[in-house]
Amino acid sequence: MAVADDTFVPDMSRRVALNYIILGSAGTVVLGLAVPYIAFFVPKAAGGSGAGVVARDAVGQDITFDGWLSTHSPGSRELAEGLKGDATYLTVKQDRTIQDFGIVAVCTHLGCVVPWNKAENKFICPCHGSQYDANGMVVRGPAPLSLALSHVENADGKVVFKPWTETDFRTGENPWWK
């Protein structure tokens, strides 16, 4: 069977151009799907050393020094969202100022949130009964370590939690939570 002279046969340059168009289109789609997939597995960059986090209350509002002191009486210990999202106690001292450190309320035994027991003047873990004094130092196990600490600072009137990196004043040792 003979091919007629008027039959259209694409020349090589047109084929190459169409191949590039198809390859470019498919590559764009694959790359568009691959970048977010790969980015999911890349860890987020750690913040700068000493960076602080503004404390938030139970509904996610920033906590201010004036607002907190106007609604909390001396001796009160209430939870706020602290570093890494951990529940952290803010304590109002007898002179109506906020304690310069926060106590992270995560038990060092199994990670339960440790409530303040006002009647016994200590933190008591509801999971296995570990007890911590008013500063978060372990006084009865099975918890092996004291509660973690964070600095409380004033940044434009807002309560800011910053990492505690120096010696733990309760034990005289380097902090285990660094």
Description:
With 178 residues, this protein is α+β, with helices and mostly antiparallel strands. The protein is 21% helix and 22% strand. The protein contains two helices and ten strands, in the order αβαβββββββββ. It has helices spanning 12-41, 65-71, and strands at 53-54, 77-81, 87-91, 101-104, 116-117, 122-124, 131-132, 138-140, 149-155, 158-163. A six-stranded antiparallel β-sheet has the order 1-10-9-4-3-2, with no helix packed on it. It has a four-stranded antiparallel β-sheet with strand order 5-6-7-8, with no helix packed on it. A hairpin with a 4-residue loop joins strand 5 (116-117) and strand 6. It starts with 11 loop residues before the first helix and ends in a 15-residue tail after the last strand.
